[in-house]
Amino acid sequence: MTQLAEKPGGVVRVHRATGRAPSGRRRHHLTSTHGRIAWTFVTPFMIIFVLFTLIPAFMALGFSFTDIKASDVRNPFGVGFVYFDTFVKVLGNAGFQRSALNTLIYVVIGVPVTMVIAFLLALVLDAGIRRLKGLFRALIYVPVIANVVAAAVIWQYAFTNQGPINSALSTLGITGPNWLSQPGTAVFVVLLLCIWRNIGTCMVLFLAGLQAVPEEVHEAASLDGAGYWRRVASMTVPLLQPTTLLVSVLMTVNFLNMFDEPFLVTNGGPLNSTRSIAQWVYEQFGYGNIAGSMAGSWVLLVIVLIIAFLQIRFLRSKA
Amino acid sequence: MITRRSPLVSGVLYLAIAVICALMLVPFALVFFGAFKSQGEFIADPGGWLPQSFTNVQNFVVLFVEKNFGTYMVNSIIVSVATVVANVLFSSMAGYALAKLEFRGKSLVFLAVMIAMTVPYVAIFVPQFLVIAQLGLINTHVGIILPMLVMPIAVFIMRQFALGVPDELIEAARIDGASEAGIFFRIFMPLLGPATATVAIFTFLSSWNYFLFPLVVAQTQNMYTLPVGLAIASQDSNTTNYGVLLAGSVVVLLPVLILFLFLQRYFIQGIATTGLK
């Protein structure tokens, strides 16, 4: 092995030696070696995938049709099969419905706001300014890497009744609300955290997309007398379709799966106004309602898949 | 774009982007200011921004002496280092196979990568926990690390980079008779410098910031990672001392921020690579 590069002649022997057990059925000696080595290379990934994605996903689906409780976890295969009862219970549960409504609010407001801000920032950083682009890009990206627990602590502190935000507002002559104790403002605070955390990712993806748009397209259009916004609307936006699709699916999935932010900042309150589906799932698990928790997670999974599918269809059909 | 712009427009754009950057950074300013404020300062002036002195490290002392943050930090470092090492090795292996080798079941493996990247974490973490429980790994470091040993995103990033490695290089080595393992370790790995950096940083970021799963797997204080320890401390209503909590946030944020300062190119490359399929 140590002489691979220096002594090619010797290496052939090594190779023949490692290929010493040809499976025989394969047509090509080299391919059979490839197959084995390739599978050796992907095995660690596949083991983890099967163990921690595939099996859990099917376990969740399977147990959704049972009445598994916390006490059954040690012996999960003795539980009763209840068909769709658990799903019916979950979908009829007022707490679940409320969390579904909250999640819908997050997606409907959060995704477009995040994307529009990120897109405008990307436009400015792509062509609007000449200097310091790297610095600005990095600064806008910083929140993406911030730990969500730390961010939530900051948010809780910043939005306390007499906290820094309200103190800053009062210097402007505005009396700030008690942010975290009223449903409307609490949802706003949670959304703000999510938007803050997601803008950077969106912006970087838009920037990457913009850089792939050929310069000539813009030059030609401006020679034809198209103004800036006209060019953005009729050329940049359509040309960015694949990026927009990717970003919108990514963001929708992110906002649908929102867990950390409401869990940490408001713990679902006040009056259940911020609890997301994901948090509901987590809490039911904690209460020992494992079947309900898993059924809830599959409802979320199906919603995610349907929305991602619809978005792809919608954006493709517009193209 | 080549168009010339008036200085006024440029000035407005610079101002706008500077203001937005400042707004994005306000939370960081708040946490760094707050970490140096004493409990007395919070009570006297809850809305104040600046601390009386930046040399008051009392909050950090409380964290490490009374609040066990030293242990949490050691746990976070163990989890992160193990995750990074495993991901760099396993994802480059898988990425190489997916990009450069032909084998039966290849499209199936790639499909697995895509599925693993899309399945919402929330939908599987409860049964993931049950798997960990069946393996007898509750409240262990291994239990926290195992699901993150090879992150699909790392495999995907490696595959994207591997696609860019010229086939001729690998063919030439193959003709010279190098074994596939030899090609991988002696030719392919050395070419992957930037990809390795990107994967290392990305997986470090994920494992350092990992919250939900360690929260359920770590059940005693000596297993908590930093984010879990911070979350538990912040939910403890007896000690709503914002100074200590903000200092804890600084401890959680700082390593990643410092890393980002030096390596931001790779952070951003990671996200751009995964976006540009």
Automatic annotation (TrEMBL), chain A:
Membrane topology: Multi-pass membrane protein
Keywords per UniProt: Cell membrane, Membrane, Sugar transport, Transmembrane, Transmembrane helix, Transport
Similarity section: Belongs to the binding-protein-dependent transport system permease family.
InterPro entries: ABC_transporter_permease, MetI-like, MetI-like_sf
UniProt keyword Transmembrane helix present: yes
Keyword Heme recorded: no
Main location: membrane
Gene source species: Subtercola frigoramans
One Pfam short name: BPD_transp_1
TM spans (from-to): 37-61, 104-126, 138-159, 179-196, 239-259, 290-310
Subcellular location: Cell membrane
Domain ABC transmembrane type-1: 100-311
Protein name: Multiple sugar transport system permease protein
TrEMBL record, chain B:
Transmembrane residue ranges: 12-36, 72-96, 108-130, 142-162, 183-205, 242-263
Keyword ATP-binding: no
Localization terms from the record: Cell membrane
Pfam hit, one: BPD_transp_1
Family: Belongs to the binding-protein-dependent transport system permease family.
Protein name: Multiple sugar transport system permease protein
Residue ranges constituting the ABC transmembrane type-1 domain according to the UniProt record: 73-263
Highest taxon in the source lineage: Bacteria
Membrane topology, record value: Multi-pass membrane protein
The keyword Manganese is assigned to this record: no
InterPro entries for this protein: MetI-like, MetI-like_sf
Entry keyword set: Cell membrane, Membrane, Sugar transport, Transmembrane, Transmembrane helix, Transport
